[in-house]
Amino acid sequence: QVRLVESGGGLVQAGGSLRLSCAASAHIFKNYAMGWFRQAPGKEREFVGAISRSGDNTYYADSMKGRFTISRDNAKNTVYLQMNSLKPEDAAIYYCAASLSALRSTEASYDFWGQGTQVTVSS
User: Fold this and answer.
1) Is residue 27 scored above 80 in pLDDT?
2) Distance (Å, rounded) from C-alpha 108 to C-alpha 19?
3) Which residues contact 105 (CB under 8 A, 6 or more apart)?
4) Is 90 helix (H, G, I), strand (E, B) or coil?
Protein backbone atom coordinates (compact mmCIF):
# COMPACT_ATOMS: atom_id res chain seq x y z
CA GLN A 1 0.00 0.00 0.00
CA VAL A 2 1.23 3.46 -0.92
CA ARG A 3 -0.24 6.51 0.76
CA LEU A 4 0.04 9.74 -1.20
CA VAL A 5 -0.48 13.21 0.22
CA GLU A 6 -0.53 16.27 -2.01
CA SER A 7 0.24 19.78 -0.81
CA GLY A 8 1.06 23.20 -2.18
CA GLY A 9 -2.26 24.12 -3.70
CA GLY A 10 -3.87 27.48 -3.15
CA LEU A 11 -4.95 30.71 -4.79
CA VAL A 12 -2.70 32.34 -7.36
CA GLN A 13 -3.16 35.12 -9.86
CA ALA A 14 -3.13 34.39 -13.56
CA GLY A 15 0.43 34.36 -14.80
CA GLY A 16 1.73 33.19 -11.45
CA SER A 17 3.37 29.96 -10.39
CA LEU A 18 2.78 27.19 -7.91
CA ARG A 19 4.70 24.09 -6.97
CA LEU A 20 2.72 21.11 -5.83
CA SER A 21 4.27 18.32 -3.82
CA CYS A 22 3.18 14.76 -3.34
CA ALA A 23 4.72 12.84 -0.47
CA ALA A 24 4.57 9.07 -0.50
CA SER A 25 4.54 6.88 2.57
CA ALA A 26 6.29 3.87 1.10
CA HIS A 27 10.03 3.38 1.23
CA ILE A 28 9.69 1.65 -2.13
CA PHE A 29 8.59 4.89 -3.78
CA LYS A 30 11.40 4.51 -6.29
CA ASN A 31 9.61 1.46 -7.73
CA TYR A 32 6.68 3.56 -8.93
CA ALA A 33 6.26 5.82 -11.89
CA MET A 34 4.33 8.87 -10.73
CA GLY A 35 1.65 10.83 -12.49
CA TRP A 36 -0.30 14.01 -12.01
CA PHE A 37 -3.91 14.44 -13.01
CA ARG A 38 -6.40 17.23 -12.53
CA GLN A 39 -10.14 17.64 -12.42
CA ALA A 40 -11.98 20.90 -12.93
CA PRO A 41 -15.59 21.36 -11.81
CA GLY A 42 -17.98 19.67 -14.18
CA LYS A 43 -15.19 18.05 -16.15
CA GLU A 44 -13.61 14.65 -16.26
CA ARG A 45 -10.26 14.07 -14.66
CA GLU A 46 -7.46 14.61 -17.16
CA PHE A 47 -3.83 13.59 -17.39
CA VAL A 48 -1.25 16.29 -16.72
CA GLY A 49 2.02 14.39 -16.90
CA ALA A 50 4.11 11.59 -15.51
CA ILE A 51 7.67 10.82 -14.49
CA SER A 52 9.58 7.57 -14.60
CA ARG A 53 10.89 5.70 -11.57
CA SER A 54 14.35 7.14 -11.90
CA GLY A 55 13.17 10.60 -12.88
CA ASP A 56 15.08 10.45 -16.16
CA ASN A 57 11.98 10.49 -18.32
CA THR A 58 8.86 12.62 -18.29
CA TYR A 59 5.72 12.66 -20.36
CA TYR A 60 3.21 15.49 -20.57
CA ALA A 61 -0.18 16.12 -22.03
CA ASP A 62 0.24 18.39 -25.04
CA SER A 63 -1.60 21.27 -23.41
CA MET A 64 0.78 21.21 -20.42
CA LYS A 65 4.07 21.13 -22.28
CA GLY A 66 6.26 24.13 -21.69
CA ARG A 67 4.43 25.39 -18.62
CA PHE A 68 4.40 22.39 -16.29
CA THR A 69 7.41 20.43 -15.09
CA ILE A 70 7.41 17.23 -13.08
CA SER A 71 10.36 16.17 -10.98
CA ARG A 72 10.99 13.75 -8.15
CA ASP A 73 13.31 13.21 -5.23
CA ASN A 74 13.46 9.51 -4.44
CA ALA A 75 15.45 10.15 -1.27
CA LYS A 76 12.49 12.18 0.05
CA ASN A 77 9.76 9.97 -1.46
CA THR A 78 8.33 13.07 -3.08
CA VAL A 79 7.23 14.09 -6.56
CA TYR A 80 6.70 17.68 -7.61
CA LEU A 81 4.65 19.55 -10.16
CA GLN A 82 5.96 23.00 -11.00
CA MET A 83 3.30 25.07 -12.73
CA ASN A 84 4.19 28.35 -14.40
CA SER A 85 2.22 30.95 -16.33
CA LEU A 86 -0.98 29.72 -14.76
CA LYS A 87 -4.28 30.44 -16.45
CA PRO A 88 -7.79 30.49 -15.02
CA GLU A 89 -8.49 27.28 -16.92
CA ASP A 90 -5.77 25.55 -14.91
CA ALA A 91 -7.96 25.79 -11.82
CA ALA A 92 -8.76 22.28 -10.65
CA ILE A 93 -8.13 19.70 -8.01
CA TYR A 94 -4.73 18.20 -8.71
CA TYR A 95 -4.05 14.57 -7.88
CA CYS A 96 -0.88 12.56 -7.81
CA ALA A 97 -0.90 8.85 -8.49
CA ALA A 98 1.53 5.96 -8.40
CA SER A 99 1.92 3.28 -11.04
CA LEU A 100 3.94 0.09 -11.21
CA SER A 101 3.74 0.39 -14.99
CA ALA A 102 5.95 2.56 -17.14
CA LEU A 103 4.87 6.09 -18.09
CA ARG A 104 1.16 6.06 -18.72
CA SER A 105 -1.55 8.66 -19.28
CA THR A 106 -4.58 6.55 -18.42
CA GLU A 107 -6.10 6.52 -14.97
CA ALA A 108 -6.50 2.76 -15.02
CA SER A 109 -2.71 2.38 -15.13
CA TYR A 110 -2.32 3.92 -11.70
CA ASP A 111 -2.59 1.84 -8.56
CA PHE A 112 -2.68 4.44 -5.81
CA TRP A 113 -4.09 7.96 -5.61
CA GLY A 114 -3.85 10.91 -3.30
CA GLN A 115 -6.79 12.95 -2.08
CA GLY A 116 -5.94 15.95 -4.20
CA THR A 117 -5.07 19.59 -3.62
CA GLN A 118 -7.09 22.53 -4.86
CA VAL A 119 -5.57 25.07 -7.22
CA THR A 120 -7.49 28.28 -7.86
CA VAL A 121 -6.36 30.82 -10.44
CA SER A 122 -7.82 34.31 -10.37
CA SER A 123 -8.04 36.35 -13.54
Assistant:
1) no
2) 25
3) 35, 47, 50, 59, 61
4) helix
